[in-house]
Amino acid sequence: MNPLLDLLQPYPFEKLRKLFAGVEPAPVPPIRLSIGEPQHETPALIHDALREAFGGLSVYPTTAGIDALRQTIASWAMRRYKLPSLDWATQVLPVNGSREALFSFAQAVVDASRPAPLVVSPNPFYQIYEGAALLAGARPVFLNQTPENGFGFDLDALSAEEWSRVQLFYVCSPGNPTGRVLSLDEWRQLFELSDRYGFVIASDECYSEIYFDEAQPPLGALEAAHQLGRHGFERLVMFSSLSKRSNVPGLRSGFVAGDARILAGFLKYRTYHGCAMSTTVQAASIAVWNDEQHVVANRTMYREKFDRLVPLLSQVLDVSRPDAAFYLWARTPGDDAEFARKLLAATNVTVLPGQYLAREAHGRNPGQGFVRIALVAGIDECFTAAQRIVEYLK
């Protein structure tokens, strides 16, 4: 077996199962707010589109995807990020959800023959970034995102020598778990570092369509690049998905877009990787990317949850509305893992300890003392969970 597999840590939910072993939950209906799996109803238009496209199951799909899907994605991205152009033929590729692409991208980008390659990740982070770096033969390095730095990147935490070995930099904006959105100035700093040291930026934007002000959607990487005059998106690739936007995590449909040169290499890798998207899923995806009505309705439900829950939970927890996404990053009274375990026993509400989403770096684990609360259940169920938490802590 590949010895690099031994470097992989258990996934957060494996740790959670061990933490909860032997706990007898309170005798009330369980409410699971630990995993970021959308539980809103899948729009009917997706069911209809899949039924109409069943004939696509009889053919092998191409890795590059059908032209119509790439054209649809390019048009959506141009509308969403106010781009004057995005070449569907060279700057867009469909992928089987952002998770698959975020992992495989590192395998295509990292040159393990160069001395001691590094991959930078936010901390806390989506664990796929770490696993992708390790299995690509690189060492993951973490930039702590803490209340003290406004949950931003402490770019001074790495030395010039370390920056010279960075080959890939994972960004998550809106962030998991904090919901923070990078500003234009922060993007400018990252682009300047990328120009200086030559690393590629992978911008994970799977939460980009969950936000609270319809007039102010979160700034995206391609949008920031365009505003800063980087019209070819040099060394930049963004990752998006229908999972959160349209409540279809099981569809496994997303896309990557950006630097045409990098995507040409990524396409070559994917041809051998065997990860072509079913033509049936591609046809359904066209219908979904072309419809915004269901996305607005989805945001409305999340907005109502935050409007109702934040004032309630803030009575007992240090918590506030994020910039975007569907998480609350709540400071806990005492150890976060012990808090989650006792909360399950007392309320049958499941939350995720923050320390499971982070690694110790620069002298601390920035997830310790926090829990991630995923407001993915229905409005009434989320409100019931919040009431139980308040009663428990009071």
Automatic annotation (TrEMBL):
Its EC number is 2.6.1.17. Pfam families: Aminotran_1_2. InterPro entries: Aminotransferase_I/II_large, DapC_beta/gammaproteobac, LL-DAP_aminotransferase, PyrdxlP-dep_Trfase, PyrdxlP-dep_Trfase_major, PyrdxlP-dep_Trfase_small. The keyword Transferase applies. Keywords: Aminotransferase, Transferase. Its cofactor is pyridoxal 5'-phosphate. This is Succinyldiaminopimelate transaminase. It comes from Uliginosibacterium paludis. The gene is dapC.
